[in-house]
Every structure is written in structure tokens, then in C-alpha cells.
Amino acid sequence: MGKYRFSFIAGLTTGYVLGSRAGRERYEQIKKAARSFAENPTVQQAAGAVQAQATGLASTAGTKISDGVRERVPGRRHNGHGSHESSGYTTLSEGKK
Q1: What's the CA dihedral at 73, 66, 81, 54 to 10 degrees?
Q2: CB within 8 A of 37, min separation 6: which ones?
Q3: Of 16, 41, 57, 84, which is the most exposed, with the fewest CB atoms less than 10 Å away?
């Protein structure tokens, strides 16, 4: 039984050492290729365009969401000048009229 255990552990150790060396080399190759890809001017330009479009879409979505909430929440209406007008509904923060 001890003979098989030793053989198994020796094989496991050898496989780990050889695999980690090969794995490290492959990792370095992948890292080098990824860095080269990321530093490519065409890729950087495309990434900038995607980021600008995402920023615009996020802004538009935020505006639509806040407008939708304002339309559906009773109690206050936005008057377009940075303040609110009462709609006749009483909210917890206003107290009773």
C-alpha cells in the first residue's frame, strides 16, 4: 500500500511541477498578447467611442427614469425651476395642512 501511495504522490508532484512551468509560460504569452491588443490605437479608439456612447445612454436612461418617477409619485410635481409645487396630497415629510 505504501508503494502505491509513494508512486501516486511522486507522479502528482512531477505533474504539478511540469504543469506549473508550462502554465506560467502560457500565462506570460497570453498576458503579452492581451497587452499588445489593449495598446493597439484602433482598439483604444473603439474603446473610447464605446465609453462615450455608454455614458450618453446612461445619462438618457437616468433622465427617463427620474421623469417616470416624478410622474408616478403623488404629492409633489416638479415645476421646472428647481422647486416643487404641492399637488394637494400630503406626504409624511410635509405633515398635515
Answers
A1: 180
A2: 43
A3: 41
Burial class for 76, CB neighbours closer than 10 Å (0-12, 13-18, 19+): middle
Tens of pLDDT along 10-36?
Answer: 888 888 888 887 788 888 888 899 899
pLDDT in tens, 48-80: 999 999 999 999 998 889 888 888 887 655 555
Residue 22 CA to residue 44 CA, distance in Å, equals 31
Residue 62 CA from chain centroid, whole number: 17
Would you tell me how many other CB atoms lie within 10 Å of the CB of residue 90?
13
